[in-house]
Design brief:
Length: 285
């Protein structure tokens, strides 16, 4: 055992009454990062002296949160954490969690909103939708398939994926022409996706239907992989270049809130609402 050193200050110094919780979390993280972890490794990772770390490890062993190998003395995560993880995985339903977020988007912008998700076989499905409050608005139905290349939800997910994954998906689908603005070549679609990555959101600029513009932002699943997308859709005379950045900010906040349910940290700053909209309006032949 190395020489004991003074314990580090409480990790969350806002309230010293929670020092014990902070230390236990630090201990568990130390075990997770180095498992099988020695006492010295856990103490160093948590910022505690070895005698203090050992006391916490004893308590965590009693509750099956960590395990100690009787032969090596090394520590690993215990079965109780696995049991908690199994329970937590089923407790967070992203579709249910997205419901209030969709309602808020309708309240803010008055347009049709939807949540789409990546399904097996490379399908993109509408998981939930809310109609707009205006007389003229897009119709979105749960269970409908969305096009990858001609919708804001499809392009938002493609732009958020690793490029190799999105390229493989693009080459596996038919890039059908719905309007004169539809992107039916791989090169044009890839250029549009790069614009989406730069600005932080995608635009369906009358590519699926003349007179309809949509804005989309992707959201990650519990593994941190792009799997969902929020969108706001409406007539082009309301979905102006001035309105779109503000809508994109609202979508980014909704996506971030959905991701926080899995404990994910934000990926990037929200799109700025004062930046001019860049888009490729038409196919370049």
């Amino acid at each position: 055992m190395t020489d004991a050193q003074p314990d580090a200050p409480a990790l969350s110094a806002q309230n010293t009454g929670f020092q014990g919780i902070d230390r236990m979390v630090a201990i568990v993280d130390g075990v997770r990062e180095a498992q099988p972890a020695t006492l010295a490794q856990v103490a160093r990772a948590s910022g505690l002296s070895e005698p203090t770390a050992l006391r916490y490890l004893h308590a965590l062993r009693d509750h099956r949160i960590v395990r100690r190998d009787p032969e090596t003395g090394a520590y690993t995560l215990g079965m109780r954490l696995y049991e908690w993880g199994e329970s937590a995985e089923g407790a967070y339903d992203p579709i249910q969690a997205a419901g209030p977020l969709l309602e808020r988007l309708v309240d803010e912008h008055g347009e049709t909103v939807e949540l789409a998700g990546l399904e097996s076989g490379g399908r993109l499905i509408v998981l939930d939708a809310r109609p707009g409050t205006h007389g003229i608005s897009k119709t979105a139905r749960v269970g409908d398939d969305e096009e990858w290349h001609a919708t804001s939800v499809g392009k938002a997910l493609l732009a958020a994926m690793p490029i190799a994954q999105s390229d493989a998906l693009i080459r596996g689908v038919r890039l059908r022409r719905f309007t004169e603005n539809s992107l039916t070549s791989v090169a044009n679609l890839q250029r549009d996706l790069e614009l989406s990555r730069q600005r932080g959101y995608s635009i369906d600029n009358e590519e699926s239907e003349i007179g309809l513009r949509c804005v989309g932002v992707a959201a990650r699943d519990r593994n941190g992989d792009p799997a969902f997308a929020f969108s706001v859709s409406g007539p082009s005379y309301r979905m102006t270049d001035t309105a779109i950045p503000q809508i994109a900010q609202s979508l980014a906040r909704a996506a971030a809130q959905l991701e926080r349910g899995w404990g994910l940290t934000p990926r990037a700053p929200e799109p700025a609402d004062d930046q001019p909209v860049q888009h490729d309006a038409k196919e370049q032949l």
